[in-house]
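Minimal example, chain plus phosphoric acid mono(formamide)ester.
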Amino acid sequence: MSDWTHRHVLDLAAFSLADYATVLELAQRFRAMPTSGARKLPALQGRLVTTLFFEPSTRTRSSFELAARRLSADVVSFTPGSSSLSKGESLLDTVRTYVAMGAELLVVRHRATAVPQQLAEALDAAGEQVAVLNGGDGLHSHPSQGLLDLFTLARHFAPETPTPAALQGKRIVIVGDVLHSRVARSNLWALTACGAEVVLCGPPTLLPEAFAGFVAAPPPGQAADPVAQRGAVRVERSLDAALQGADAVMTLRLQQERMHQNLLSSLDGYHQRYGLSHARLARCGKPVPVLHPGPVNRGVEMTGALLDDPALSLVEEQVRNGIPLRMALLYLLVAGSAQSSLKPSSSSP
Ligand code: CP
């Protein structure tokens, strides 16, 4: 297990192969541990985690809060609508209020790109010791989702040893609204780092050709790519062609709330061309799993029958894996070392 060097988790572009290995190994350990009742882990006892979600969430917020509680942390949940933001308090002053109350980790979701990063920079400049974890910002990044997707795929391909090597040489199709998807962007960094080939599929309005070069250079502000060699990325317009030889298929939610222009002629037409069904999936030539970060538009990105098929759908497994994966991130950022004791305590609450 490598030394952990990240003070914040803002974007998977900054992750090395060793970072992915550390997170997956810890997540696998947490997944195997009993974490309820008297067997709750005491690792973050007395530490305060605050979730600040300025955009709606079901999975991410709840699983971060559950993950924190399973590590015995205290959790404060900020709700913008009933906060003093409505009285004119700034976002940074709001965040500093929670830091003054003792928060050691802030999970931040915001509809604007780079808000978690800007908060992290402002808090670092002020000398605060708090860590910031990006819970999803604009179209930019959703690192914990990218990591839980990676964990889910690694467990599918290598249930006993879900390491980054489990993805080496696998062909993963990502189909749908790539343009508006921070999940797709995080998955591109994670999957290619582990040596997977990624085939992106969608109409030109939702998948510009430039995405083929998305991981070719580090993002602005990052000096170098920490990964020496990444898997390839290609763009395919035909879903049937994209599915040939695929080892797994991830479909993305149509993010109509982020579409400011008419980018689709009809939802029905979209489903016909890019929706997943049992019949469509048969084009892979073998049974392959389907993933979706949720929330799902049933009958648009995939049929309800496929979503509910436990033999092929990993969607609920993604949700289950989100808790141990987020426990791993909280543990690394708050406890600061992957080497500390993780023994359950019968005396913990
Ligand atoms: N996948 C995801 O981010 O879901 P929520 O919006 O429900 O958190």
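The first helix runs from residue 17 to 32. Strands lie at 48-53, 74-78, 103-110, 131-137, 171-175, 197-201, 233-236, 248-251, 290-291.
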